[in-house]
Amino acid sequence: TRAWARREPELARPAAPSAQRTTESPESPVDHNLQRGTWIQAIGAAVVAATSRDPELAGNAALVAVPKATRATHESFAATLGRGLANRDEALQVDPDSLRRLDRIDVVILDPRVLRTAALRLAGLRGTDEKDLTAWESAREMLATGDLRPGWHPVPGRPGTEALVAPAPHPLAAATLAETQRAQVRTVTVDDSAGLGVLRPAFDEIAPLTGDSIDVTLLHAVRDYQQDGHTVAVVSSAAAQALSAADLGIGILPDDGEPPVADLIVDDLSGVWRVLHALPAAQEATRLGIALSTGASALGSMLLIPTVRGRGPEPVALGAAVGLVSGYWTARRVITAPLPRPVPVEEWHAMSVEQARAALSSLSRPDVAPDTGTAGRHVVWQFLDAVRDELSDPLTPVLGLGAAATALLGAPLDALMVGSVLVSNAVLAAGQRLSAELRLDRLLAEQIPPAWKVTIRPDGTRDRVQVLPEQLERGDLIEVGPDDVVPADARLVELEKLEVDESSLTGESLPVTKQLDATPGAELAERRCMLFAGTTVASGNGLALVTAVGPDTEVRRAADLVTSRHGDIGLTHQLGQITTRTWPLSLMAGGLVSVLGVLRATRLQQAVANGVSVAVAAVPEGMPVVATLAQHASAQRLTKSGVLVRVPRSVEALGRVDVVCFDKTGTLSENRLRVTEVRTAADHSRDEVLRCAERATASAKGQSHIDATDAAIVAAAAQVPGAVASGTADAHLPFRSGRPFAASVFGAELTIKGAPEVVLAACDHVAADIHDVVEQLADEGLRVLAVARRELSPAQVQSLSADPDDPEAQLATLAQQCADGLTLVGFVGIADTPRAGSAGLLAELERRQVPIRMITGDHPTTGRAIARKMGVRLSADQVITGTEWEALSGTEQERAVAERVVFARMSPANKVQVVQALERSGKVSAMVGDGANDAAAIRAATVGIGIVAQGSDAAHTAADVVLLDGKIETLLDALNEGSQLWQRVQAAVAVLLGGNASGALFAIIGSALTGQAPLTTRQLLLVNIVTDAFPATALAISQPRRPMPFGGRGPDEKALLRAVTLRGTTTASATLAAWFMGRLTGFPRRASTVALVALVSTQLAQTLLESRSPMVLATAGGSFAALALLISIPGISQFMGCTPLGPIGWGQALASTAAAIAGAAIVPRFLSPAEAH
C-alpha cells in the first residue's frame, strides 16, 4: 500500500496506447508440470479404482498425483519477491502475474536511453585544438550555467568553437548488463545516435535504428523474438508499445512525461538490477518445486501400499510445505542481496591536479574496523558452501528420494546408510575442492606485485609503506618507479620523465609519455595524466592519487562487461548429462525387480522395497566425487608444468577444444622489436646501414628505458664492430608528432633514420626502383625505416652550436639540414620478436587438426606476414579487417570465423565478437591473450587462457588457465592434460556404470528366478563404495595405461557404451555363476555372500586390466581386503546380510572371477582395432 501511495501521482496520469503480444506465449515449465500431473492423476486414480475396488484408495491415489509443491514453490517465490520489492521501494507490480513469468524470460531488450542519466557531460570540442585547456574551461563553465540539451553548442567567448554535450552514463549501467550475462539471457539493444561506448561488447545483438525512432525499433525487436518462440522482457522509460507488447515490461518512471505502460514499475536501474538478479532464482525455484512435487508423489504412492503405515496424501502436503519455505528463502536471497557498487562517473582525466585533490578529499571513506577473528569462520563457511554445492548435484534428489522410500518401506538403517554415503561423498569432494582452492589462492597471491603507499607528514616529509593493491582506497597517494606494475587507477600529481607501457590495456606497443596537464575529452589511450591498473612503468617516477581500485578500474570494468556463460563446462556437468540418461534406466531396473517379485508372489511391500534398493544401488553416486577429484588432480599436475589453473573445471573443456584463438602482440610475440632485415643502397654495406642508423638514435646513457625501435637498432648495431658511438652526439633531433624521423650530428657527419617517404624525398640520386624495395619490406610485415647521411660544411656545423637561451633554434636548424642533400645508405626492417615456442606450437596444433585464429590490432599486411613467418598456411582471402568485420551480419560473421584465419585491425570489442561468433557456430573455443584488451574475449571463450611474462595483467584475472613465465608452449601440456583427463574419467565412469549395470542385471535375473533380489540394500551399497567409488577415483586421478594421443573431443559415448556393456556382462556372468554354485552347496545367505565376493573381485580385476598404476593397485588391494574383513568378522558380517565363507565359498567366487576375467581379456581380440581401443 505504501509503495502504491508513493507512486500514485505518477500512475494517475493518462497512459499511452498499448500493444499486445501477437503470438502465443510458450508454455511455462510450471504449466507443463501441472498439465502432466492432471493426466497422471486421472490415469492413476482409474487404475487404482479398477484394481482395488476401493473408492477411498482411489481418491488417495488422485490426491497423491496432485503437484502441490510445484504450485506452492512458484507462488511463494513470486509473492515473497513482490512484497520484498515493494517494501524496499525498488519495484511495484502493476500486473499481479508479472513475477510469475520470470522463470520463462530468455531475452532482455534494453532501451539504450535507460543506460544514460539526465546529467550532461562534455564529450568533445571542434573548431579548436582538442588540447586547448582554456577552451575546455570555457565549455565547462557554459555547461555548469546553461540549460543545455545533448548536441553541439557554441562556446561563449570562443568564436568558431563548439562543444559536444552528451548524456553521462548511468553508474549502474555496467552492473545491469553484467547481471544479464549472469542470468544467461540474450541481451539486445538499439544502436542509437548517442552511441553505446564501452558497453557495446556486453550486448548479444545491437539492432540498427529503424528511421529515427528508438520506440519503433524496440517494438520490432520484441515482435521478432516472440515470433521465434522467445519470452521477452523489455526495460524502458518511454517505449510504451514495446513495454506493453513484451511478456514482461519493466518501466522506469521518467522525471516528467507519461508513466510507462508496464507490468513492473521501478524508479531507476537499481530496481531493474534486482529484477534481473531474480531471473536465475526464479528458474531455480521452478526446478525445485517440480523436483519436490515429483518426489512427494513418488513417496505418497508407496504409502498407498496397504501394509505400509501412513496415508498417501501426507508426503504431498509435506512437499507443498517444503515448497512454500523453499520459495520464500529463494526470494529472500534475491531481496537481501546487496546492490552492486555504482561505477564512479567522475572524469578524473579532465580535472586539473587541484580539482582532483579537492574532489578526492571530499569523498567519504568507509569506516572498517579490523577483524581479528574471522579467518577460521571464513574457512568454515567456505567449506559449508562447498558441501552445499556438491549436494546440488542432480544425483542428490534421486538418492535422497531413495533413502526416504527405503525408510518408509521399513528399513530405516538402510536409509541411514544411503544418506551417509551421500553426505560423505559431498564432504570428501568439498574438502578436496576447498584445499585446492586455498592452494590456488596462495599461488595467485604470489603473482600480485605490491604497491607503495605514500603518507605526507605535517612537516612535509614522506613515509613510504608497502601494501597490497586491495588495501588501497580512493584518495590514497601512491608512488611508482621503473618496472613497477601500477596497482590502481590514479591521477598524476608529480612526475619525472615518466613513461608507461600501456600495451596490455590499449594495445599501443610504444610507451606513453605522461604529463600533469588535464586531458579533457581524450579517449582512454590519450589520457596522459592518468595511470591505469595493470600497466607497467617503463621509465621515470611519479606520484599519483588513487581514483579507482579493484572492480572499478578501467581494466576490470572492461573485462566484467563480458562474463562467461559456459555453464556446460566441467566434468560435473558433462557427467551429469550421462547421469540424467542413466538414472531412468535405474528406475526401470528397480521397477522390473518389483514386478518380477509380485509375479513370483512376493509380498507387495517387500517387492517394492527390493525394487527401490536396486534402483538406488544402480545410481552411480560416486560420479560427483570422481569429477571433483579428477579435475583438481589435473589442475595440480599442470601447476608443475608452469600452467596455473584458476578454474579447475576448465581442464575438462581443454580436452574438447575445437579452435584456438590467439592475440598476436605479447602472446605469439614478445612485444619486443628487433631488426630482422637490412637492405643496402648502392655502394654501401650492411654494417654501414646499421652504423648510421645507430648514430641517428638518441643515447641511452643515463636512461632506464629507451624507445623500443631505438633499442632494436642499438641491439643490432652492437653486433657490428665500431658501429656503436663511443660518445654523445653533438646535436640530436628526436622523433615527434609531425616529424617522422630522427637525426644526429657527430663531427661533420649527419645521420638520419625515419619514414621512407620523408627520407627518400630528401635524398639525391635515388634509384628508380627503390620504392619497390620499401613496398616489398612492408609486405613482409616489417616496420621500415630509411637510413641516410650527409657531410656538413664547417659553416653548417657552426650553425648548430647550441644557444643555451634558445635550444629550439638548434633543433630547427638541424631539421632544415635534413630536408635535402642526403645520400641514401639503406633500409632497416623491424618486427616484433616471435615468442619462443610459438611456431612449434602452431605447427603442432595444425598436426593435431586444431584450427587457429589470429586476432590482432595490427595492419592486415603485418598480420598476414607474421602468420606466414610462424608457419601458418594462409591465402590472401583468409584475412579480414575490423572494418570489414563490422559490416557483416551475425550469420555472415559465423561464416567468416569458419573461413578466415587472420583478423586484423580488430578492437577489443571486435575480439569479443569473433569469439562469440565461434561459440554461436557450435565450436568449443579457447582464447589466448596477455593484456587487458584481451580480457573480455578471454572471458567470452569456453576456455580463457592468459599468458603472463612479467608484471600483472587483467588477462590472467579473467582467464581460467594462466601460462606462467611466458611459456606459450605449455599450452600443449594443458591440451594434453584435458584430453587425457577424459580418457581417465571415461575409464572411471565405465567402472561406475559397469558395476551398477552388473548389479542391476544380477538383481533382475535373481528376482525372476526367486522373487527376491539376491543382494540386499546394504550389500549393494558396499559394492558401490568398495568396488566402484574408491577404485574409480584412483583410476580417474592416475596416469592411463595407454596414453591417448590428442585428438579426442570429450567423451566417446560409443566406446563408453561398449566398455559398460562388456564390464556389466562380464561381472554379471561371474556373479551369476558363483551364485548358482553357492545355491547348490549351501543356503541362500551363503549363496548371496559368494555372489557378492565374485561381483566385487571381478570388478576389481577388470579395473586392474585398465590400469596397474601404484595408486590403482593399492586401492584395489585395499578394497578387496576391506571386503574380506567385513565378510569374515561375524557381527559385521551378519549386519551386512552376509555370512563368513570357508575355502569352498572363496574358491567358488574366485574361480568365477578368473573365468570371467579370462573372457574379458580374450573378447577384445576378436573385435576390430577401433572397437578394441
Automatic annotation (TrEMBL):
Recorded catalytic activity of this chain's protein: ATP + H2O = ADP + phosphate + H(+)
Region (Disordered) residue spans: 1-32
GO function terms (MF aspect): ATP binding; ATP hydrolysis activity; metal ion binding; P-type calcium transporter activity
Main location, first listed in the record: membrane
GO CC annotation terms, alphabetical: plasma membrane
Alphabetic keyword roster: Cell membrane, Magnesium, Membrane, Metal-binding, Translocase, Transmembrane, Transmembrane helix
Protein topology in the membrane: Multi-pass membrane protein
Domain Cation-transporting P-type ATPase C-terminal as annotated: residue spans: 1013-1162
Highest taxon of source: Bacteria
Keyword Translocase: yes
Any Pfam family matching the protein: E1-E2_ATPase
Comp. bias intervals (Basic and acidic residues): 1-11
Residue stretches spanning the membrane: 987-1009, 1111-1132, 1144-1167
SUPFAM superfamilies registered for this protein in UniProt: Calcium ATPase, transduction domain A, Calcium ATPase, transmembrane domain M, HAD-like, Metal cation-transporting ATPase, ATP-binding domain N
Subcellular location: Cell membrane
Domain spans labelled P-type ATPase A: 465-562
Name recorded for this polypeptide: Haloacid dehalogenase
Source species of the chain: Mycolicibacter arupensis
